[in-house]
Design goal:
Radius of gyration: 20 Å
Shape: globular
Strand content: 5-15%
Strand order of the largest sheet: 3-2-1-4-5-6
Order of helices and strands: HHEHHEEHEHHHHEHEHHH
Largest sheet: 6 strands, parallel
Number of helices: 13
Structural class: alpha/beta
Length: 337
């Protein structure tokens, strides 16, 4: 740490402790404010604008029934996002957050809608149960597309969501290979599988995991098992961090993308704020690997960026506290004896 960095951190802690409150009285909001200040390297950070980007893509392994829903739902939900009817849309409208939807590789013919942005690699991935989901060039193209998306715009914070039937299975396999953990320990209900469906899903993913070494790099894990939407999201996280944005990380799939982003661009995780702990089984294990303590725990497992959106008001409030709250000196309030 340089002298300048150390001086900034001391000044930051003094600024937080000097607010008109007992030291530490705002708990984790103070920690959040400090993180935002470090991201922006500013004692008066600003978090007033936010954009949600939803990445959509299909997975070849969905043909095995790893989800409770048919693959057609990916396309149907993209149309729902575009018409403003999904939970993510409702939360975003309520919080005045801009939304963009990106086709990274939805199965079937391209959707023709002027509101839909195309970063389309192919009409879904290959079946990762028995062969690589994509080739190395496709993976690099998805990462490049994402990085471009992440750097765009002048919004202070970026929320990233996803849609893709089968993508909890993909995320479980990617996380297992990055952590060197058994994929069975990371498998959850996803869209709501019953016990027999869970057993089938676990067996399929364990077979898929046997195709490759226990540990892989992020690029290799995405190539072998990733969805185009997960790879594009990982790239977007690195791009947003490079652009100095606050990256609000959503649930299990987004956190796996964040794990990939950290491997691809070490240090980018300093810009990450983890929104919530989802009900998906593997999420806590990935959060622990990242040393992350999420802001919320609402028993959610929807995706779409919904958890990230619900964390946005906390991010906004934490920055405003540090920027606008009076100090004991400025308010003429007596400090502790």
């Amino acid at each position: 740490m340089t002298t300048t960095q150390a001086d900034f951190l001391r000044a930051l802690q003094t600024a937080i402790d000097s607010k008109t409150k007992p030291v530490g009285a705002l708990g984790r909001i103070e920690q959040l404010a400090a993180r935002i200040a470090r991201i922006q390297h500013a004692l008066k950070p600003v978090a007033e604008t936010c954009r949600l980007t939803i990445f959509a893509g299909d997975h070849g392994m969905a043909c095995h029934g790893v989800s409770a829903y048919p693959q057609d739902v990916t396309r149907q939900m993209v149309l729902n996002f575009l018409s403003g009817g999904a939970a993510a849309n409702v939360f975003a409208r309520t919080l005045e957050v801009d939304v963009q939807v990106i086709d990274c590789g939805v199965a079937g013919e391209p959707i023709r809608d002027p509101a839909l942005r195309s970063c389309r690699i192919a009409a879904g991935t290959e079946n990762a149960i028995d062969r690589p989901a994509m080739d190395a060039d496709q993976c690099q193209a998805a990462l490049y597309n994402g990085r471009t998306v992440g750097t765009e715009g002048d919004h202070h914070a970026a929320c990233f969501g996803e849609m893709g039937i089968g993508n909890t299975s993909s995320a479980s396999l990617i996380a297992a290979k990055l952590l060197g953990a058994p994929v069975g320990d990371l498998v959850g209900r996803g869209t709501g599988l019953e016990p027999d469906g869970m057993a089938r899903k676990r067996a399929l993913l364990e077979n898929a995991a046997m195709r490759t070494p226990d540990r892989l790099t992020a690029a290799d894990a995405l190539t072998e098992y990733g969805g185009f939407e997960i790879a594009t999201m990982a790239g977007a996280m690195t791009g947003a961090a490079e652009a100095g944005k606050i990256v609000i990380v959503d649930g299990f799939i987004a956190t796996v993308a964040a794990l990939c982003a950290r491997d691809l661009s070490p240090g980018c995780e300093q810009n990450f704020v983890y929104a919530h702990r989802s009900a998906e089984a593997g999420h806590t294990k990935v959060l622990e690997a990242l040393g992350a303590e999420p802001l919320l725990d609402l028993d959610m497992r929807l995706g779409e960026g919904t958890g990230a959106l619900l964390a946005w008001p906390l991010v906004k409030a934490a920055a405003a506290m540090l920027r606008e709250m009076a100090s004991f000196d400025s308010a003429g309030v007596s400090g502790p004896a």
